[in-house]
Amino acid sequence: MAAFVKVPRGLSVSLRCTSTSALAERFGVSSRTIERDLRSLQDAGVPLYATAGRRGGYAILPDFALPPVRLSAQEATACLAALALMDRSPYATHARTAADKLAACLPAAVRSAMPVEAVMSVQAPQAATTGAWIDALHEHHLVALTYLDDSTPRLVEPYTALEAAGHWYVVGWCRTRNAVRGFRVDRIRSLQVTTATFAPTHATDVARDLERWNAAPLN
User: Fold this and answer.
1) Interior/surface letters 7-31, b for 16+ CB within 10 angstroms, e for the rest
2) In this structure, are residues 46 and 60 in contact, taking their beta carbons and an 8 Å threshold?
3) How far does the chain reach from its first CA to its final CA, in angstroms?
4) CA atoms within 13 A on the CB side of 64
5) Mean pLDDT computed over 177-204
6) Domains of the chain
7) Do residues 120 and 79 make contact, with C-beta atoms less than 8 angstroms apart?
8) Backbone torsion region of residue 195, taken as left when φ is above 0, otherwise alpha when ψ lies between -120 and 50, otherwise beta
9) Could you report the per-residue pLDDT of 17-74, keeping only the tens digit for each?
10) Could you tell me what percent of the chain has a pLDDT over 70?
11) Residues 84, 92 contacting (CB under 8 angstroms)
12) What single DSSP character describes residue 41?
């Protein structure tokens, strides 16, 4: 291990040190992994303190916080471009607010070195509608939808969003068909988030079905 700062006498009471073995047990990893992570934190400039002895271990000042991420103009442009491409996805609304927050945090020198627009994107008309699916996914709300080529109303438990072959899909457990189904965003005619909630008991079924989709590329 690299050398750590010894706990100053005045801080010995307020700092609570934890051993590598205790950290390994808490996070379910090996002590070697914990030691590697501690070195990474130290390399990142985090002030780690150490105490020796049977009750020794490592600690960080309680009020310490990592500084903001420092991005170059090129890195910031790449991040904003990636978020702009989400305008064609169910994440469109949240991606735009994330981009606004990122841009607001950039130093003036970085902003001035960036292009006026990181990337131009034409929003798919369905993105705003299907974006509600993402909120429902996090809150476990049932979704009622209809497909363009099928007027049968579907009641769906939303589990995830999927991008494949240039198209976005919303994936969940279809109660109407009693099976996992993926609905292509640009083929959804209407989508409504209901007030009813569900327990995500079909997560394993969805994960198993997604493995099949990986084996057989979507068209």
Assistant:
1) beeeeeeebebebbeebbeeeeeee
2) yes
3) 51
4) 12
5) 90
6) 5-60 (1.10.10.10), 73-112 (no CATH), 127-215 (2.30.30)
7) no
8) alpha
9) 888 888 888 888 888 888 888 888 777 677 777 777 777 788 877 666 666 778 888 8
10) 79
11) no
12) H
List CB contacts of 204: < 8 A, sequence separation 6 or more. none
Q: And the tokens for 103?
A: 């841009």
| Beta-strand runs (E) in 32-83 | 48-51, 57-60
Our measurement of the distance from residue 85's CA atom to the centroid of its chain's CA atoms, rounded to an integer in Å, reads 16
Token digits of residue 15: 């700092």
Tell me if 124 sits within 8 A of 176, measured CB to CB.
no
Q: What is the DSSP string of 77-121?
A: HHHHHHHHHGGGSTTHHHHHHHHHHHHHHS-HHHHHTS-S-S---
Q: What is the distance between the alpha carbons of residues 44 and 42, in angstroms, rounded to a whole number? A: 5
How much of the chain is in helix, strand and coil states, percent to nearest 5?
40, 25, 35
Q: How confident is the model at residue 179 (pLDDT cuts 50, 70, 90)?
A: very high
Query: Taking Cα atoms as reference points, which of 137, 124, 148 lies closest to residue 171?
Result: 137
Q: Using CA atoms, how far apart are residues 126 and 161, in angstroms rounded to an integer?
A: 14
Name 5's bridge partners: 49
Query: Where do we find the tokens 């965003």?
Result: 185
